[in-house]
Amino acid sequence: MGGINPMEKEIEYLNKIIEKKPVYKDILTFYQKILKEQRKIKIEEKDISYELDSEEIIKEKLRKGFPLLDRKKIKINFKPAEELAERLIFLFKAKIEIPISELLKKIFFAEDVSNLGNEEKERYLILISKLSLQPLTKAITEKFKKYLDQRGDYLKLWLNGYCPICGSKPNIAEIKGDYGEKYLHCSFCGYEWLHKRLVCPYCGNTDHQTLGYFYTENEEQYRIDVCEKCKHYIKTVDSRKLSEPVNLEIEDWCTIHLDFIATSKGYQKEKSTLLTLWYHNGDTVIPLL
Ligand SMILES: [Zn+2]
Ligand SMILES: [Zn+2]
């Protein structure tokens, strides 16, 4: 063996960003702590029990726009997520009134969580829960990914702006490959799927007059794709302009300034997650950490 492990690489990448953009120091140092806790969690085969549908049903679901994961059919050991949540609650110094095991299940099974207190607190706890569930959701998605990777053409049936595995909306996108194809990254399970470039993933708008994008100064690798029809935006990384492969989970944290720019121009993210970590006080944005 030898060399550095993937987590060390991630930490190093974040250090480079901090060096380039000192304004990111607090948030990315905090994120490094989260990452270290997340990467400690090992999901074992026995933690997830799920029987894939038959080939026919899978194709039918993709054709009709139904996500493949049926949450009612899955058996999960939530212990690893609970352990992680305990550590993240400590890191976030969060106060939580309901048992964390209950909250994690509610978020995983997409149940109503509107009774968690005020809206800000609700978003905060949802973010912690999602981060705690990530190792599990990634492991689930890996099962589907393996299956779909062997059947490359199946995903051609999927033309939707929500995740073919879990049905969640994307939080960030990547343009890559010789033909500049656009991939959307699922905000919940991390799956990435091919999507048409000139279609809004949120409302399906295809009218190029009302679809656009803008760049920020000195950052031609990033852009913000916007839709004037539904007023949503998605951050997009053009990895053709970068020398290293891109990890979109991490890029989401390194591009929070784009979220600020987009939301200040009146565009909205489907569900703001990382923006939850700040609050606006007049013109100043203050980290809640
Ligand atoms: Zn997903
Ligand atoms: Zn739209």
**What's the CATH architecture of the largest domain?**
Alpha-Beta Complex
Question: Separation of termini?
Answer: 38 Å
Structural class: alpha+beta
CATH H level of the largest domain: which superfamily?
FdhE-like domain
Low-confidence stretches: none
Number of strands: 10
The biggest beta sheet, please? 6 strands, mixed
Tell me the CATH topology of the largest domain: FdhE-like fold
The proportion of strand residues reads 15-25%
Query: What is the topology, as strand order, of the major beta sheet?
Result: 5-4-3-8-7-6
CATH class call of the largest domain: Alpha Beta
Kindly give the count of domains. Answer: 2
- Small molecules held by this entry: zinc ion
Based on CA inertia axes, which overall geometry fits?
Answer: globular
Key attributes of the depicted protein:
289 residues; alpha+beta; FdhE-like fold; six-stranded mixed beta sheet; two-stranded antiparallel ribbon; 38% helix; globular; binds zinc ion
Structure characterization notes:
The chain folds into 2 domains: 41-156, no CATH class; 159-289, FdhE-like fold (Alpha-Beta Complex), CATH 3.90.1670.10. It starts with 5 loop residues before the first helix and ends with a strand. The model has no long low-confidence stretch (mean pLDDT 88). Strand 7 (219-227) and strand 8 form a beta hairpin. It is an alpha+beta fold. 30% of the residues are buried. A 6-stranded mixed β-sheet has the order 5-4-3-8-7-6, with helices on one face. Helix 4 (79-92) packs across helix 6 (119-149). It is 38% helix and 17% strand. It has helices at residues 6-20, 25-40, 55-64, 79-92, 100-108, 119-149, 248-254, 256-264, and strands at residues 48-49, 75-76, 170-176, 181-186, 192-195, 211-216, 219-227, 233-238, 278-281, 284-287. The protein binds zinc ion (2 copies). One zinc ion binds at residues 200, 202-203, 205, 227, 229-230, 232.
